[in-house]
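ugh ok fine here u go
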Amino acid sequence: MKANLNGSAGFRRSGKHLVFWSLAAASFAPARQTAAALPEWLGDSSVTLKETYDGNVFLSGVNPQFYAQPALPAVPGSAVAHKNESAAVTTAGFRATLNLLPATGTNTLSLFTLAYAPEFDVYEGVPSETHYDHRLLGSLKGQSGPWSFGLEENFLYVDGSRVGPTYPGGYVTAFNVGAPRERRQQIQDRATATVRYDADHWFGRSGLNLTLYDLQTELRTNTGYVNYCSRYDFRGSVDAGYKVTPQTALTLGTQIGRQEQQPYSFKVNESSSMYYRILGGLEGHPLSWLTVKCQAGPDLRVYDAAAAVNARHKVTYYDEISAAARLSDADTLTLEGRQFQWVSSLGVVPYFDTSAALNWHHAFGKTVGTDLGLKFMSADYRSGDLVTCRRVDTETCLTAGVSYAVNRHLTVALNGEFDLGLNDISGVTNPTTRNFHRTLVSLGATWKF
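structure:
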């Protein structure tokens, strides 16, 4: 279980030396103890308050000499992404979960919940970054004989600014535009459906998966203004598993999908494609203290004719892994990672996205928990054929957190994060403008019912 340092309050701005604290639901809080007085239709529900200090709201590395460029446009409502601009962020939110399983009156379902989890983030001195998130969550699981199935829905509406930020000189990276993008008005949807058949020594499984970003910000041609394009990834999958042991299986399967991005009327390039993956994997409990799920294999890509790529037919690599090692009764080590080809979030060229995160959680009894984390991300744009987009961006994040369970209802948490973004390729004009750093400090409190 990890500290959630990227929760709603942890995003961004201004250059003043203020020390703020963020009050947020720490995801490593001890398990909720259900009160006998709660009705059975009420699932996990909570109220959260958080205060955050963000040392670089826009994760900008643009040096001051670029601020007054004549080319810097005056886009109404567009925030200028100054370097190391800090801000205090106040967050308030709650989560209400309905447990609908008792109302179904069936033994086929094992889980049926709906939840509403809004979060309100106010940026002091940076009104353009204030946003209100409305999240709807749904989960359904069931089984009938050898057949099992599941549905997961995560729908997000962000009520935020409809105007993107402006980076002086147009110096942006894959990572410094990501934080303000998540605060703009948009709809995100992530949905998964799976069906599985289990025999004694093997299983078969199929699924559908949707990832959708409907960005609703204004599109402009002004230099330095960030245009966010809508995009989606939809795929179907089929795989089979051989049970090496009752707890562990080897898998082999395929994924067929489509990645598409919104084309811009003022640009001729985009990065939409079809893809076909052949993946082998391992999942289950190969050791009593170890849980693993991983799959990897080639990704065969066929790009649309308008795609700005150096090869319309391309073979890349795909992998994803999650692992949790129970080192002792008090210590858990978790690893998550993924590599895949993805469309451009800015509507120019696709990139190869790599991420890996390692977290160590230690519990001091039942009341205190600590977390240390390290995350590395890379965005490699060299599959594009535009000279201006031949870039490799990286970001490294160090995180630390401590939580204290005051009682079975109230948990407080103190979290910290340091982010370092770097240009990782030679031949870039003004490369230091692509480098940035950010410090986040947060203090939060959560009341669970």
